[in-house]
Amino acid sequence: MNILYNIFIEFVDKIFLPILSIFSKKISRFIVVRKDLLQEIDKDLDRKKKYIWLHAASLGEYELAIPLIKEIKKTFDNEIILTFFSESGFKLKDRIHQVSKTYFLPLDSKDNVKKIVKVFNPRFAVFIKSEIWPNYINELKKRKIKFYLVNYVYDKYNSRIFKGILKKYTKIFTQDKISERQLKNMKVDNALYIGNLKFNRAIMQKKEKYNNKKLNNYLGDDICIVFGSTWDRDLQSVHVY
After folding, report:
1. CATH classification at residue 80
2. What is the band of 198 on the pLDDT scale with cuts at 50, 70, 90?
3. Is residue 210 included in any domain, yes or no?
């Protein structure tokens, strides 16, 4: 699988995305923001410091990561590097002050991975939700750096395809008990149920003051519940009366 995966990644990086960028401004920006990125990161980071690296694909994963980031900062005095794939998360990178450095993450090609992990050289790494990148994982494992997958949800297709990679994580913290059980049935014994960070974030936001005059005028005295960045699986357990 490794050979086929790497051929696929190289094809996407060198051929598919450049062609697609001609027709898509979003893909074009994806390429542009990553041009010379490795050199910029190398110049920006202090090699004398030991960082903690967290990766969130997009804004939804970033929201999940916020309670975890705040707890990490209470426990460790290391600065935090946060990486994104999408612009939606990156645009709101300053939402919390606990993150020191924020970058887009290069594609999971062998060359990119070796350079990034070498430059980051993190104390440990944390991937949020479904961020399973074989080359990044293999490189962290090779360098004997601990790495974790947090808020993971079992998927009968992806989980089985990446079974060998999932086994390499130092620990996989699952969102629900079903995911923990299914992974252990697959002999992925490093899985542990801890619950959904989405609830931690909701509790945290409840304590935050948010005033929007237009929204307040529109709602009046009515109660309004808003669900954002939801998955079908989340909605199955929600009953609105």
Report:
1. 3.40.50.11720
2. confident
3. no
Reported as a pLDDT band with limits 50, 70 and 90, residue 238 is: low
Domain count for the chain: 2
Are the C-beta atoms of residues 174 and 180 closer than 8 Å to each other? Answer: yes
* pLDDT score, position 212: 78
Residues 15 and 81 in one domain: no
- Sequence-ordered list of residues with C-beta below 8 angstroms from that of 134, at least 6 positions apart, any chain: 2, 5, 108, 162, 165
Pairing verdict, β 52-55 and 191-193: unpaired
Cα–Cα nearest to 196, from 28, 11, 60: 60
Token pair of 157, please? 């297709």
Question: Which tokens hold the place of 182?
Answer: 């299914």
**2 and 51, same domain (yes or no):** no
